[in-house]
Amino acid sequence: MARSKRTLALSLLLIVILGVFGFTAPLPFTVISPGETVDTLGKDAAGAPVIQITGATPQPTEGQLLLTTIRADDPDTEHHLSGLLDAWFDGNEAVVPKKSVYPEGKSKAQIIQQNTQDMTESQDHAAVAALNYLKLDPNQVKVKLNAGEIGGPSAGLMFSLGIVDMLGTRNLTGGQIIAGTGTIDDTGKVGPIGGIEMKTKGAKKSLATVFLLPKEECKKAKAAAPGGLRLVPVETLPQAVDALMALQNGGKVPSC
User: Considering the domain boundaries, does residue 89 fall inside one?
Assistant: First the structure.
């Protein structure tokens, strides 16, 4: 009996120690939430066009093509179990491994520099992919993209669609608010991104009714997307354009 009591006491003490440690020790997670959306067919906060074109005359556009973002805690923020539990049960926030947002072993300054570089490269790829799709000479038509302080590569697809809308012969939105996310390369291939769950919520908050996303992100998006937001998975820029036209014409539209 005495041994049983000692064992129980030790077990309870261990639970208390682990509980205190869990609530006070920093954990390798961070909290993300829906970030801002930017209309690639519109203007930035300073009133300058998000997409600036020289060497060709942009066509009139209507509707919106929104790039979506996430907001993540400062990389230097330390989270403890109590705070993470609050975020875990908040439908407008998500708890994710810190390394999925911030590369390990890099300082805050290095992370900012990398995100800026990723955005610059993403813009270059988006312009090349769009001009190739439109069969326009990049030596004659120049595209300058402005995303403000947004970093990372995930705006590529929406930038490309904005360029195609402005320089092509067809309106892609049908006057609707279309949101989306996805990296893009020079060939127009759409790649995966992070934070898809929060990006769908940000799109809905900005009144989007359609959300374009990389096909391989379907499972995560479907599990978290708010009601009334139509998920349209794509693998390439041509597929994205075709899907948007099908939405307007009553054609077959991909779905998750």
Answer: no
